[in-house]
Design goal:
By secondary structure, the chain is an alpha/beta fold. The chain folds into 3 domains: about 350 residues, ABC transporter type 1, transmembrane domain (ABC transporter transmembrane region fold, Up-down Bundle); about 40 residues, no CATH class; about 230 residues, Rossmann fold, CATH 3.40.50.300. The strands form 4 sheets. It has a 6-stranded mixed sheet, with helices on both faces. It has a 4-stranded antiparallel sheet with strand order 2-1-3-4. A 4-stranded antiparallel sheet has the order 6-5-8-9, covered by helices on one side. Helix 4 packs antiparallel against helix 6. The longest helix is centred in the middle third of the chain and has 54 residues. It is elongated, with a radius of gyration of 36 Å. The protein starts with a helix and ends in a 7-residue tail after the last helix.
């Protein structure tokens, strides 16, 4: 497990990277990508921008009226009961109230509108991300951890949501406030503004030093959080294995290492983030005191009026806080943009490459063998190829599979299959046996075009499979894997997953064929029993039976069984063997198995060793050869 952690930490996945992950590599491009998702909300964003401007200006204008209130009304009214001045004072107070009400209303408006904009934007991003993940090749999932992928949907998208709905508006509101306040300061007193500029330089230095470190550690925190989530998900899924081998202490030790890295980065990030506010607050108090002292001297000397000094002091209070907020919001924005960049990196991944143009269509077969394309299911299919001259060629789908000198490796410098040649006639059963890593499963991955072969050729019904559209090719194949995956839903829905247009009667017939009908009817709600947690309430054998039934309802000409009975006990295997034979009847079947009883009836058995077929023949022929197969099978129940 420690190796897996090390691998995860060094992987170059979307959430991965060296420690001290940089800021977004292309800030401008990332912002443009996010903005492209907001095109439909451009008029709403215009209203938001106007509302932010009005809200910020309302605050600045409201403060500037302090000078008028004090100098023009309060000071003259001291010891004076002038009714006209009092009416003017009340009018100004009413005007200030209206200004602040406008500010409050526009603040509510832009916050409310941005919630809608952010949720719609993230809806589109999430949809694009999931759509791309559905289009990615199997290789992507073989080289990226589940934790990395889930972290995109949780950490990165959630951080982006908070920024779009809150941080961005606060950032621009604070920026406008700073500019407006600074402008009014210059108008009121350029002398006192010099003090502000000097304190601003000190504040910006503090923000750059402390805020920069905070942003770095917040990004590392997001990175470590992805690793922790991935490890937790992996260990929860593997709890049975953990407990069987009593590895709880080892798991806890490894989790403690990951959790400690997260704690360290989170602590550092929050330390710098939390000390920034008190430092900026103390600097603002110092700034306020100095401004009050010098402003008071100017007022005494008659250089500035009392109202101007008081208004300027209020501006001073409203100047330092937005600067701190700009720093904090900027850190949040940069962190979110780094996450958005990782999301867009996945969205920009190359989808599964497919230049296939041959499709599979339902046909009717006449007594003379002529094929006629129809738009309804007949149980017969043909490969449809449109020729360069516009003519159409139909080839009946029978399941004739040929490997011709296939060479393949998952990595360029590591060859897994070395010149594999074999053929499977329609209805034949071809079995593969050999030690782990010999290349058995790789062969089935190539038939499905999960990977394309760089050398050699694979054909089905004399058509190269790289000419067949992948979706159509896979509709001609069904698989039963060793690791069964059941979706949240009813038993009926899980079996029907093999063919979505299958009727209830066809689903039940498939279950009977796989001998799953009996145990299904003993479930609480029969075929309507809802399965959750990957069918955790079922035994491994029952889950495998449902997978076999799912393959049966698909009614495909080619069937791949990858250790399909490995999780079924010998008694259950004996009960379903006839069902398996019925399932394979008339189909070209590729069987990977470690049980002699499973491969004995195969038409041909291929013995693989180090990516090569070293023996081939039926069971009796291979026994007579007294080679590797004989050594594997003699006196043994299992072949690997």
């Amino acid at each position: 497990m420690s190796k897996s952690i090390e691998k995860d930490q060094s992987a170059k996945g979307p959430m991965s990277g060296p420690k001290g992950h940089r800021m977004p590599n292309n800030l401008g491009l990332t912002i443009k990508r996010i903005a492209s998702y907001m095109k439909e909300d451009k008029w709403i964003l215009l209203i938001v921008a106007i509302s932010i401007l009005l809200s910020s200006l309302a605050n600045v204008i409201g403060i500037s009226f302090l000078q008028v209130v004090i100098d023009d009304y309060l000071a003259p009214l001291i010891g004076n009961q002038d009714s006209q001045l009092m009416r003017g004072f009340i009018s100004v107070i009413g005007l200030i109230s209206i200004i602040y009400l406008v500010g409050a209303a526009t603040t509510y408006l832009f916050n409310r509108l941005m919630v809608g904009v952010s949720t719609r934007t993230l809806y589109k991003i999430r949809l694009d991300l999931f759509t791309k993940m559905e289009a990615l090749p199997i290789k992507y999932y073989d080289t990226h951890t589940h934790g990395d992928s889930m972290s995109l949907y949780t950490n990165d998208i959630d951080t982006l949501r908070q920024v779009l709905s809150n941080s961005v508006t606060n950032f621009f509101s604070s920026l406008i406030t700073v500019v407006g306040v600074f402008t009014m300061m210059l108008i009121f007193s350029w002398q006192l503004t010099i003090i502000v500029v000097l304190m601003l330089a000190l504040m910006l230095f503090s923000v750059k030093t402390i805020g920069g470190k905070s942003a770095t550690f917040f990004i590392q925190q997001q990175q470590e959080l992805g690793r922790v989530n991935g490890y937790i998900e992996e260990m929860i899924e593997g709890q049975k294995v953990v407990k069987v081998f009593s590895r709880q202490e080892k798991v806890l030790e490894e989790f403690e290492v990951l959790n400690e890295e997260l704690r360290v980065n989170a602590t550092k990030a929050n330390i710098f983030a939390n000390i920034l506010m008190p430092i900026m607050g103390n600097l603002s108090y110092i700034h306020y005191a100095i401004t009050a002292m010098i402003g008071g001297l100017f007022a005494i000397m008659g250089t500035l009026s009392l109202g101007t000094v008081i208004a300027f002091l209020q501006f001073t209070r409203n100047f330092s806080m937005p600067i701190t907020q700009i720093s904090q919001q900027l850190n949040a924005v940069l962190t979110a943009l780094a996450g958005a960049e990782r999301i867009f990196k996945v969205i920009d991944e190359q989808p599964e490459f497919d230049q296939g143009h041959v499709t599979m269509v339902p046909v009717e077969v006449s007594q003379s063998g002529d094929l006629t394309e129809v738009d309804f299911r007949t149980g017969e299919f043909a490969w449809k190829e449109v020729m360069p001259d516009g003519s159409i060629s139909y080839t009946q789908v029978k399941g004739n599979v040929v490997f011709d000198n296939v060479v393949f490796g998952y990595e360029e410098d590591k060859t897994v299959l070395k010149g594999i040649s074999l053929y499977a006639k329609p209805g034949q059963k071809i079995a593969f046996v050999g030690s782990t890593g010999a290349g058995k499963t790789t062969i089935t991955n190539l038939i499905n075009r999960f990977y394309d072969v760089p050398s050699g050729n694979i054909s089905i019904d004399h058509i190269e499979i790289n000419k067949i559209r992948k979706s159509d090719l896979r509709r001609a194949l069904s698989m039963v894997l060793q690791d069964t995956h059941l979706f949240t839903g009813t038993v009926m829905e899980n079996i029907r997953y093999g063919r979505l247009d299958a009727t209830d009667e066809e689903v039940i017939a498939a279950a009977k064929l796989a001998n799953a009908d009996s145990f299904i009817r003993h479930l609480k709600d029969g075929y309507q029993t809802v399965l959750k947690s990957d069918g955790g309430t079922l035994s491994q054998g029952q889950r495998q039976l449902l997978a076999i039934a799912r393959a049966a309802v698909a009614e495909t000409p080619v069937l791949i069984l990858d250790e399909a009975t490995s999780s079924i006990d010998t008694r259950t295997e004996a009960l379903i063997q006839k069902g398996m034979d019925r399932l394979m009847e008339g189909k070209t079947s590729f069987i990977i198995a470690h049980r002699l009883s499973t491969v004995r009836s195969a038409n041909a058995i291929m013995v693989l060793e180090h990516g090569k077929i070293i023996e081939r023949g039926d069971h009796d022929q291979l026994i007579e050869q007294r080679g590797k197969y004989y050594q594997l099978s003699a006196g043994m129940f299992e072949l690997t």
